[in-house]
């Protein structure tokens, strides 16, 4: 009899896992059908969400209620669906410049509103009631900044509750007394999975609720769901999942919501190769969150070994946008071999709907323990400074008619232009535009400066680094971001 019971239990687990794998694969394959196409840029604004929320308000499947407002008076909405006893609460964008999961929430809502996956959705919505609070910090989102209008980090306001957004989050959590909570964020794209070159595309955390980092049933349940989600993501982003630092932060909402009895799962969206607007990462959020909700609904997470949580590699911060290795750098009549790590920093345009890059050298020397989204082995190449093109052009339009790669081949990385439009913030060409009176600083490779130099081999310039972008001077500079304008 004992053998039969064990066999039956194992058989049940195998069947449940097979069903979850099936739904996960189907969710990934059919994602485009539910993707909210009106949201496709990270700098999503409050007004873009309102027509979508209004649509769900008119839909009898959903309940939409105002649960507060921001300092500047923007309404905070809670969208709910389901009739189950297990309350699952998901909130996003408490930091205004962390929008990836906000977009994924509307993809999930579209999925829940569809006529597809009826069996799976029935299982979810009979077992769970789902509550979504998208864009908790709409004032910060308006100017694409982390903090709210008061200048407060909402995620450090769980004790004093100084901000109306913080009070709304606390009030909703308490009114629901949610069983599970998903705290949805973005993290730096420069995090990598520990001791690997792979970015931490998604990082998870079951936050600690005390300094001792004890594990009770509430936190353990969050850990088990995280292990499940990690298994899902390994299919689509192998090796690109990290585990966020779990040091207890007594002011943080995630840590306190865990302490208040809600099994809390932090999801941090990081970087992914050639995914500047994080649309592939958004898809991974969609798949992993829906899969997690499914395992919560059927309870299969209970059988997941808790010890597997610690096997997820920790976050590390060892990534650069561009890493140049083994380049020869002449300095004071001596040659030195160095690595250079550089990052492309985003500068918002005035309306905060778009940006341009202003890059910096972050480190140099022996960077053998660091990695790059793009890495170039410059063995045999010598770093040489760029020159100013000898002719002054009348306009940017004239520059557009020149073959920029030829200018780079001849060693020119700067070009003077008489009439630079006042509203022009960056150069779309792989060469810096400078004003008539601008004096180019003396060349040096040092931390903090804009990375602009040439790479020469056997007396010929083969590559240029312009504003932190590597350009092959023998090819078209396709995919180049931007160079600088120095007036």
Automatic annotation (TrEMBL):
Extent of the signal sequence: 1-18
Domain of life of the organism encoding this protein: Bacteria
UniProt-listed GO biological process terms: proteolysis
UniProt keyword annotation of Zinc present: yes
Listed GO CC annotations: extracellular space
InterPro entries: Peptidase_M14
Keyword list, A-Z: Carboxypeptidase, Hydrolase, Metalloprotease, Protease, Signal, Zinc
Keyword Transferase among UniProt keywords: no
Example of a GO MF term: zinc ion binding
Co-factor requirement: Zn(2+)
Ranges of residues in domain Peptidase M14: 42-296
Active-site residues (renumbered): 249
Family, per entry: Belongs to the peptidase M14 family.
PANTHER family linked: PROTEASE FAMILY M14 CARBOXYPEPTIDASE A,B, SLL0236 PROTEIN
Protein name, entry field: Zinc carboxypeptidase
Taxonomic classification: Bacteria, Pseudomonadati, Bacteroidota, Flavobacteriia, Flavobacteriales
């Amino acid at each position: 009899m004992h053998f039969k019971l064990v066999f039956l239990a194992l058989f049940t687990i195998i069947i449940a896992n097979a069903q979850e794998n099936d739904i996960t694969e189907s969710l990934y394959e059919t994602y485009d059908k539910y993707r909210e196409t009106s949201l496709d840029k990270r700098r999503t604004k409050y007004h873009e969400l309102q027509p979508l929320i209004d649509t769900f308000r008119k839909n009898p499947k959903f309940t939409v209620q105002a649960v507060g407002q921001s300092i500047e008076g923007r309404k905070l909405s809670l969208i709910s669906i389901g009739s189950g006893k297990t309350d699952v609460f998901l909130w996003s964008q408490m930091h205004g410049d962390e929008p990836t999961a906000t977009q994924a929430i509307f993809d999930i809502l579209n999925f829940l509103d569809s006529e597809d996956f009826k069996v799976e959705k029935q299982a979810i919505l009979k077992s769970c009631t789902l509550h979504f609070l998208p864009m908790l910090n709409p004032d910060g989102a308006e100017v694409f900044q982390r903090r709210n209008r008061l200048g407060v980090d909402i995620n450090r306001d769980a004790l004093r509750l100084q901000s109306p957004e913080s009070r709304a989050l606390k009030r909703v959590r308490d009114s629901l007394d949610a069983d599970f909570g998903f705290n949805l964020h973005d993290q730096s794209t420069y995090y990598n999975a520990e001791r690997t070159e792979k970015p931490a595309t998604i990082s998870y955390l079951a936050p600690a609720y005390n300094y001792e980092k004890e594990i009770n049933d509430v936190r353990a349940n969050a850990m088990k769901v995280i292990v499940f989600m990690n298994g899902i993501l390994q299919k689509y982003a192998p090796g690109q999942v990290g585990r966020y630092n779990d040091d207890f932060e007594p002011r943080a909402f995630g840590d306190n919501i865990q302490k208040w009895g809600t099994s809390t799962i932090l999801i941090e969206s990081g970087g992914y190769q050639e995914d500047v607007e994080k649309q592939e990462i958004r898809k991974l959020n969609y798949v992993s969150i829906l899969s997690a909700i499914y395992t919560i609904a059927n309870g299969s997470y209970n059988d997941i070994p808790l010890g597997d949580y610690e096997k997820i590699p920790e976050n590390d911060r060892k990534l650069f946008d561009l890493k140049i290795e083994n380049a020869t750098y002449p300095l004071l009549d001596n040659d030195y071999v160095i690595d250079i790590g550089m990052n492309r920093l985003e500068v918002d345009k005035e309306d905060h709907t778009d940006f341009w890059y202003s890059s910096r050298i972050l480190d140099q020397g022996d960077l053998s323990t660091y990695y790059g989204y793009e890495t170039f082995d410059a063995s045999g190449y010598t770093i040489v400074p760029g020159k100013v093109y000898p002719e002054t052009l009348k306009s940017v339009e004239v520059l557009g008619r020149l073959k920029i790669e030829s200018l780079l081949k001849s060693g020119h990385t700067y070009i003077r232009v008489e009439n630079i439009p006042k509203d022009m913030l960056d150069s779309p060409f792989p060469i810096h535009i400078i004003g008539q009176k601008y004096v180019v600083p003396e060349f040096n490779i040092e931390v903090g400066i804009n990375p602009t130099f040439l790479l020469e081999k056997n007396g010929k310039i083969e590559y240029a680094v312009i504003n932190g972008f590597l350009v092959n001077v023998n090819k078209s500079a396709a995919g180049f971001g931007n160079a600088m304008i120095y007036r």
